[in-house]
Prior knowledge:
The structure is a homodimer.
Chain A: E1 5-10, H1 14-26, E2 32-37, H2 50-55, H3 69-74, E3 77-80, E4 84-89, E5 94-98, E6 104-108, E7 111-114, E8 118-120, E9 133-134, H4 139-150, E10 156-160, H5 164-175, E11 179-184, H6 195-207, E12 211-214, E13 218-223, E14 229-234, E15 238-240, E16 243-246, E17 250-252, H7 255-259, E18 283-285, E19 292-293, E20 300-301, H8 306-320, E21 334-338, E22 341-347, H9 350-355, E23 360-368, E24 379-387, E25 393-400, H10 408-416, H11 421-424, H12 441-460
Parallel strand pairs in A: 1-2, 1-7, 2-3, 7-18, 9-16, 10-11, 10-16, 11-12
Antiparallel strand pairs in A: 4-5, 5-6, 8-17, 13-14, 14-15, 19-20, 21-22, 22-25, 23-24, 24-25
Helix pairs in contact in A: 1-8
Keywords (chains A, B): FAD, Flavoprotein, Oxidoreductase, Redox-active center
Cofactor (chains A, B): FAD
Pfam families (chains A, B): Pyr_redox_2 (PF07992), Pyr_redox_dim (PF02852)
Amino acid sequence: MAARERLLVIGGDAAGMSAASQARRRRGPDELEILVVERGHYASYSACGIPYFVGGVVEDLGKLIARTPAEFRDLGIDLRLRTEAVEIDVDGGRVRVRAEDGGERWEVYDDLMIATGAVPSRPRLPGADAAGVHGVQILDDGVAIRRAVEDGKPRRAVVVGGGYIGLEMAEAMVMRGLEVSLVDIADQPMQTLDPDMGAIVADAIRGIGVRLYLGEPVAGFDTSPDGHVTAVRTESRTLPADLVVFGLGVKPASGLAREAGVAVGPTGGIVTDRRMRTPTERVWAAGDCVETRHLVSGAPVAIALGTHANKQGRVAGVNLGGGYATFPGVVGTAVSKICTVEVARTGLNEREAAAAGFATLSVVVESTTRAGYHPGATAMKTKLIAERRSGRLLGAQIVGEENAAKRVDGLAIALWNGMTVEEMTGLDLGYAPPFAPVWDPVLIAARKTADAVEQDMRSRS
Amino acid sequence: MAARERLLVIGGDAAGMSAASQARRRRGPDELEILVVERGHYASYSACGIPYFVGGVVEDLGKLIARTPAEFRDLGIDLRLRTEAVEIDVDGGRVRVRAEDGGERWEVYDDLMIATGAVPSRPRLPGADAAGVHGVQILDDGVAIRRAVEDGKPRRAVVVGGGYIGLEMAEAMVMRGLEVSLVDIADQPMQTLDPDMGAIVADAIRGIGVRLYLGEPVAGFDTSPDGHVTAVRTESRTLPADLVVFGLGVKPASGLAREAGVAVGPTGGIVTDRRMRTPTERVWAAGDCVETRHLVSGAPVAIALGTHANKQGRVAGVNLGGGYATFPGVVGTAVSKICTVEVARTGLNEREAAAAGFATLSVVVESTTRAGYHPGATAMKTKLIAERRSGRLLGAQIVGEENAAKRVDGLAIALWNGMTVEEMTGLDLGYAPPFAPVWDPVLIAARKTADAVEQDMRSRS
């Protein structure tokens, strides 16, 4: 019998715990020891649920936690919270960890899984670290913000940055009765959408009472003598703030890996192959800290999203357990909801497509979610972006109400398979009056985009 | 200049009017005369909307009508209602039509478009044509049933046949306050689903108060001396009925074509190529009266559905107008809703797959429509059917609540592209807590089916 090996996992959320669980399924405790170190108070939770926890939509913190440390212990996984990995020594096959009391020790490994997640971007400005200023990444952040909101003191909140998290947090704080402003350096919120679609989101945000200041870079933060934030300053105004939340996106938390000599790619994410192996022997990585391949552009991307983290963690765990699994890449699908307005995107937007070297054509169609005569039918806009000449679908965006956003799945699968918009016009999609008009919005959009591709070709011939 | 040609269209609903409109777009009235004859009182309406009109969900009949005869006239399309085609003479290039007053005349054509739709199946039993017994196909049927319901006399309705239309009509009549029974010769309603999924639909139907009598063939109909239906008899019981509705499915209305020597295939549908041309010169056909290719089984199928009829009609019209368009076939996607229960299917069910010569493996997974902790998350069941060994997806079925059914679109697109369940496990689907659990039901189902395929292979090696 082979000697018992040791798997050390850094990071106890989606990717780390998925990897640990999968490895355990395939290799019992006699064969594989599994140690997970997690710097926060919580592990195995839904980070995407944080805005709903802050807003009170999800009352109980426990509901966000998939498995407790005790449950992992029962599986033979030693999960240590409040324990931070501070150095990786790949030559020595060991990691220096710091416990809550500050004590440090080296933990050895046969295989190392890096699942350190991401860190919220923060402007390098005085006051950006003041009390009352929060990033949103780990569940501890959510707990801190909810505590601040529930203590009843804050009246005015400023969200800096209008990405998904920023918008979801803005809505959550509106639900809590705060006066909420949102500042973004860009001319539109949700930069992952094209400006025409982003403008609809901006209207929705204003519609729930959020004051939107677009095209305004943050210039600084005012603080009180006791070090608490009191205002956010832009070049045009000073916004009083009892609470500030960053929604500027996140960056891969790859510093530890980089310092250890583990390859980090151009996106700042750790480099892995399709089996989630880094180029460093017996070092694996998965989740928000890695970069992956965008299957439309072919370029590496770092996209922090629970669904990728879970899949990648699972893939790493299967491989660590002696099986074979791969993570092929992403097509950039994302969905979100601001009150009743649903937003979805997949593939490349116009800017991204241009950056990737594609010449594109775009079409936006207005349609309804159900047959026009069916009560409850609401408006939705579908935008398709196709490559000139080939007509290959490159990206799609949807903004609408009830039931609009999840329709992006079909578009993501069409993208995944490299379909052209002309081919898509024949697709056999579900039709009944409560679900779609007889010409599904996706079919109308495909038809119009295919027509645009054809016209474009004629005008150039 | 070429002489003006004449397009004659038989049937003024989805396929016929789409063809006429498309042909007109490409060829003006100076070039092409277009005559459409329609036997009913209405044209260009949503037949799929009939149950909602009967149930009162859609109040106004006009809402079901996309374009009036006057609007078609303005487009230069001569649409004649209450005018029935009674004979096609392909050698003479003419069609004998009968006007409302019984007068007949021959109308010549250069191109003929047959869009005669479908006829509801009726049991060949005495009383099946009695007053108060209705099929559901053209809008006239819907108007007659709603009139019968609204005159307040019927108290007890019996639906014979538990297909989509039967179930939707049962719900509509429950909404109208009638006591509704549903009789089906099969052991489950909705034969397009496998028995395990159909059983859930049966429960939903019972849940809204419909009495379900399954596995009971109808033996006959009792009628009053004045010829009105009074009861439906099965082998086991007599169900008093003031109103009877058939939901036994429909058959292609291909009799006129067959009599004229236009080829009719094994399904009873008119045979066409991908451009919607029949083998008879200058005779085209589209909609519920034709058969098309099932892209999974490769076999011809006749599926009466507005979405196919519209697409096929458009394709025929583009080609009639001098353009090039094709209808590639279908994958058998359908969605429906019984109160809050949504039902969807695509591809082949187990019975159909076996008939097509596939050895299959199936997996049913229970999941939720949103993240489990998100309020409003409801249960949904997803069934995938894959080919043994290859793991190619062959079919899928979904039963669930809010937002469950339209997820079938993604599965239909996966099928369309011939994906295997293993490939599907990597799909990048939209994830956020209000829209899906972090492991989307489709991904879980794909994973479990892929595992089943692998296990099956091992157990046979």
